[in-house]
Amino acid sequence: MTKILLAEDDHSLRTFLSAALRRAGHDVQDHEDGEGALEALEREVFDLLLTDIVMPGLDGIELARRGAELDPAMKIVFITGFAAVALSSGAPTPAGSKILSKPFHLREIVDEVERVMAA
User: Fold this and answer.
1) 79 three-class SS
2) CATH superfamily assigned to domain 3-112
3) What is the C-alpha separation between 97 and 95, in angstroms, rounded?
4) How large a percentage of the chain has pLDDT more than 70?
């Protein structure tokens, strides 16, 4: 079982992703913003950070950067509908992080989590 921290500001998507990942046997803690997710990263160890890139306040890139500083072994997957725009800002992403573009099927996200964790 993978311990996953999910940061997604879209309530419906966050709910669906959490449910799909739990059904696949993962332990999921979800947060609606980067600030709440960062607090969780400061308290607990996670195997995987699954984060939207574009969120109000602390965005997913900064969340991932800080998370990688706290735990370099944690895997990171970005989920976003704005990958090209968000990543063109020049903000460096943690080494080895993956990007999954929206829209995607829930099965795709579950499969990607399994691929990332197997690597």
Assistant:
1) strand
2) Response regulator (3.40.50.2300)
3) 6
4) 88
